[in-house]
Amino acid sequence: MNKLSAVKLALFGSVMALASSGASAAELNLYTTREPGLIKPLLDAFTAKSDVKVNTVFMKDGLTERVASEGESSPADILMTVDFGNLIDLTEKGLTQPVESKVLDAAVPENLRDAGNNWFALSTRARVLYAAKDLDLSAFNYEDLADPRWKGKVCIRSGQHPYNTALFADYIAHHGAEATEKWLTGVKDNLARTAGGGDRDVAKDILGGICDIGIANSYYVGLMRSGKGGEDQVAWGNAIKVILPTFKDGGTQVNISGAAVAKHAPNKEQAVQLLEYLVSDEAQKLYAEANFEYPVKAGASIDPIIASFGELKVDPVPLTEIAGYRKEASELAEKVGFDN
Amino acid sequence: MTDTVLQRFSFIQAAHRKVGRLWLFMAVVIALLVLTPILALAWEALHGSSDLWPHLFAFVLPTALTQTLTLLLGVGILVILIGTGSAWLVTAYDFPGRSTLEWALLLPLAVPTYIIAYAYLDILHPIGVVQGAIRAVLGYSSPREFRLPDIRSMTGCIVLLGFVLYPYVYITTRAMFLTQAANLIEAARTLGTTRSRIFWRVALPLARPAIAVGVSLALMEALNDIGASEFLGVKTLTVSVYTTWITRSDLPGAAQIALAMLFLVIALIVIERWARRRQRYSLTAQRNRSFTPRKLGGFAGWMAFCSGFVPVFIGFVAPAAYLAIEAWKRFHMAGLSRQLVSEASNTIIMSAVATAIVLVFGIAVAYAMRLRPGRFSGVAYRLSTVGYAAPGTVIAIGILIPVAALDQFIDRNAMSWFGFSTGLLLIGSGAALIYAYTVRFLAISAGAAEAGFSRIPISFDQAARSLGQDATGTFRNVHLPLSKTALAAAGLLVFVDCMKELPATLLLRPLNFETLATHLYGEAARGTYEEASIAALAIVLIGTLPVIVLAGVGRQKA
To answer: Which CATH number is associated with domain A125-253+310-335?
Structure first.
C-alpha cells in the first residue's frame, strides 16, 4: 500500500507539473461550451490587446454541474455557452453574478440580456430553412414543415437538440401545446430520414438527394460556402438556398451565444474586461466574419453570405418566455416519437 | 524440536494471515472508490421527484428499451460470430497470411465508435465515394435518380459497432483456444473427431466463459456509446439519460434512469453467471500444448485469408484509409496544428498513468478474491467492475460531485490553516481524470487478472506458501509470472480505452488541457470533421501501436 501510494504520488506530481503552466501577470479562466476553433481568434485578439492571458477548458455537457460542484473553489471567471436556455439555467442555479457595465448595457439590446444583468448575448443566429437550389420556393413559414406536400422531403437533427427544443418551445409560445403536438406529428411524418446528425448534414443530404428541405442554423451556411470547412462542404453549401422562415404571426426564431461572470470569479475585473471586449466593434466584426453569426451590437456589419439571406425579422416572443416552454417542448417531441 | 518448528510455523501463519488481510483491505478500499460515484449518483437521484417516470413509461421507455435491446442483441450476435469465428480460423487452420491476420484482427480496437460512425457516414453517403462509383457504373448522373438505403439506421449502427467491438471477443476467445482448450482439442483429435465437430462440441463450450467476458465488454461499450448512436440516429436508453439531463436540465432524473440502466446491466451479468453456475473450468498443472493447425493451401487458403480479412477491412482498413486521405487533404490546406504534439503527449501520459493504476487495482481486487474467497472479496470484485457498465458522462458526473467536494474541503482547510488557496487540487492536477479512467476501466484489468489467476491451479499457491512465501511473495513469484501475458493484454486494452475515452475527459480535465479525443470532439461538434481528421488519425495510429504489441504478447505465448 505504501509503495503504491508513493508511486501514485509520484505520478500525480508529474501530471501536475505538466498541467500547471507558468503564471503570467493577469489571467482569466474561461469555461466554455463553444468549440475552441470558434472562440480562439477572439481570445487571441483580446490577449494581444489587453495582455490578459485566457486559460480555457472546453466542455460540452456538464458545465453547469462542474461549476456548481466546484463551488467557492472554482477558478472559473467566465461561463460561455450557446442557447439562452443554458444561460438562464446558470443564472437560476445561482452560478452567476450581476455585472454593472455601461459598455455592456449600451452594446447589448435589452431583450438579449438578463433583466438582472447576469448574462449577456454576444451573438445571435437564426434557425433557417435550407432548400434544394432548384426548388420553386421563396417564402416559408415554420408551420409549413408539417404540410403533407413535404412528405418524405424534410431533414432535421434530433428533436432533443437544444436548437430544436428552442424552436419547438417558440412554437408553443405562438400556438399552444396542443397545436404544437399536432405540428410535430406532421413534421415527423414528413421526415426523409431519422432525425439526427448535425445541421450541416441537412445541406449534405439535400445534395445527396435524400431530402428537399430542412431546418438548420444560419452560420453553417457561411462556414460551408466560405470554404472554411474544406472543399466538400463548399459543394454542400452551394447545393442549397436559404430562406428565412417566419411564424405566421411572428418572425424568425433566433437563438444566442452568450456569457456570464461566474459567481465566485477570482478575476472579476478581467472577466468584465473580456465581456466588454467581446461586444466591441472589433470583436463583433470577428463574430460576424469568422463565425458568420449575427452580431448583437446595432450597426455592426454582417458577413455578405449571411446578408444575402435577406433582412432578418426576429420573432418578438421574449427569450425568457420561450425558455419556460422548453421542458414541455422536449416532452412533446418524445411524445410524438420525433426521433424514433 | 518439533514444538519449536510448530511454533515458528504458526507464527509465520499469523504473519501471513495479516498480509492476506491487507490484500482484502485493499480490495475493499478499491471497491469503495469505484462505488463512490455510483453512490453520488444515487444521492443525486434521491433529490429528484419521480414525476418523470409516468412520461417515461408512456412515451420513452417502450422505444428506448426496444432499441437498446435490439442494439445489444444485434451487436452481441455479431461480435460472437466475428470474434469466435475469426479466433477459430486463425487457431485451427494454417494458411498464407495467417500470422498477419492474427494481429491484424485486433486493429479495429484502435478505432473509437464515434470515429467509425462518422467515417462510414461519409464513405457511404449518397455523395460519397462508394455510391458515386456505383452511379458511375450504372450510368446515373445524380443521387436523386439512384441511391442506396441510408446507413443511419439500427442495422447500420449494429453493423458498425459489431465490426469495431468484435476484437474483445476475439482476444479472449483466442487466448482460451490457445491455452486451456488446446489439450482437450488435441485429445478429441486423437480420438478421431472431425474439426467442425471439435469446434461445436469441444472448443465452443470450453470457450464459453471467455466469450461471455468478451461479449459483456463489447456490449457495455455498445450500451455506453453516445457518439455513434448520435450520428446514426439510434435512440438508446443512454440517449434518454442525456435528453433528460441536457435538454430538460434534470440531473436527478437522468441519474434515476442511469441507475435503472445499471441495475439492468448487473441483472444481465448475474443471469449469465447463473446460467454457468454448474460449470467448472478447472485445469491441470500440465503444460498446455497448442494443437497443430490444419494446413490450407491453394484456393482454400486464399478463401480462409479473405474471410479473415473482411472484419479487418471493415473495422480498420477502410476507415483508417479514409482518415488518412482526409488528414492528407487537411494537411495540405492548413498544415499541422501546433497543439497536436502536446495533445498527443497529454493523451499518452494520462492513459499510461491511468493504465498503471488500473492494472495494480485490478490485480489487487482479483488476488484478494483468490486469497480470501468469500462473500466480502467476491462482492468487492463485482462492485469494482460496475463502472464499466454505466454511461461515461453519467459516471463523470458521479465522480465530479465527490471529487469537487473534496477539492473544496482541502481548499477551505488550507485557507483557514495555512492562509493560502490550493485551488482545485484534484481536478486541477488531472487526478480527477485518472480517477475517472480507473472507475471506468477497472473491469477490464480485474476481469483479466481473475481469468489469468483462475488458470493457475490452487495447488501452486499451497506449494509456494508451504515453502515460506506470504501472499505477496506468492503473487510475485507465482501469479505474476504465470499471468504476465493476460495482464499485459489487459494493460494494453485499458490504455487504448483511456485514449479513446471522451465524456469524462471533456468534463473533468484541467484548464488548458487538451487531448486528441477532446480536440477531435471540439471539431466534430461544430461539424468541421475535416479539421479533426488529423487528430482522429493520430488516435487510431497511437491506438494501433499497443494493439501490435498486444499481438506480439499473444504470439509469444502461443
So the answer is: 3.40.190.10
